[in-house]
Amino acid sequence: MNIDVSGPKKMLTWLSAEGEELFSISESVVTGWVVVLILSIVCYILGRNLEMVPTTKRQCAAEFIVKTVNNMIESNMNKDCVKAYAPFIAALFSYILLGSLISLTGLRSVTADISVTGSLALMVFVMITYTKLKYQGLKNYLLSFVNPLNLISEVANPVAMALRLFGNVSAGMIIGIILYAALGSASGAVYGLLGFGAEEYYFNIFQIGLPAVLSIYFDLFSGVIQSYVFIMLTMAYIYMGRE
């Protein structure tokens, strides 16, 4: 059984009159917009017709989510940071979480693309830099680079965040593919021992049920953990920029 592990596929491609590629839209871009659309619908449903005193389960769920995010920021940063950073942290966590878990539907995880995780890390870097300039001032910010280690750290932190998220999600995806292929080979081996040819069996018995159990870790558990780690690092770096 052949195993194909490649980057995101090109969904749409525009060619010049000479046949040269001018522009293309990758699978990650399409899936990313699907994630944004889903999150927009969820936010609209949870955020419409809110009342001062919640009377619906929908509003209770919305308030629970907001309270959870606020408590997390308050405990990892401080109470003053809640209003300033809660929307950013919540949006970042939601996108990474759903972008990782969307592989459960058969689509490719957007966080298995280094360009996506690099873009997310770049946004965090911009937020950290803005925070440092706001609370430390331009002069102190520039003077901090007198120490070469600070310059290295300034670049290394977002790069490490992007590679950590990409590496863990893509590794889980690759391991899942390898295990799925191995289960298919094991099914073929069993049919061979029973005296059936490869053309005589129509399904791989070991690929029924077991891959779903494995995906609980490689897709569900790992996706949640990596999303949480990313925002925890984000909050830590932003808070350090305030000091």
Please render the helix and strand layout as text.
Elements: E1 10-15, E2 21-26, H1 27-47, H2 57-76, H3 81-101, H4 114-143, H5 148-193, H6 210-242
Antiparallel strand pairs: 1-2
Helix pairs in contact: 1-3, 2-3, 3-6, 4-5, 4-6, 5-6
Report the mean per-residue pLDDT as an integer.
Answer: 83
Shape annotation: globular
Tell me the number of structural domains.
1
Q: Which spans have pLDDT < 50 for at least 5 consecutive residues?
A: none
Record field, number of beta strands: 2
Largest sheet: 2 strands, antiparallel
Query: What topology, given as strand order, has the largest sheet?
Result: 1-2
Secondary-structure element string? EEHHHHHH
Distance between the termini: 55 Å
Beta-strand proportion: under 5%
Structural class: mainly alpha
Number of helices: 6
What quaternary form is this?
A: single chain
Radius of gyration: 23 Å
Helical residues, percent: over 70%
Q: What would you note in describing this structure?
A:
The protein is mainly α. The chain has one domain (10-242). The protein is 70% helix and 5% strand. It has six helices and two strands. Strands 1-2 form a two-stranded antiparallel sheet. Helix 1 (27-47) crosses helix 3, helix 2 crosses helix 3 and helix 3 packs antiparallel against helix 6. It is globular, with a radius of gyration of 23 Å. The protein starts with 9 loop residues before the first strand and ends with a helix.
Features of this protein?
243 residues; mainly alpha; two-stranded antiparallel sheet; 2 strands; globular
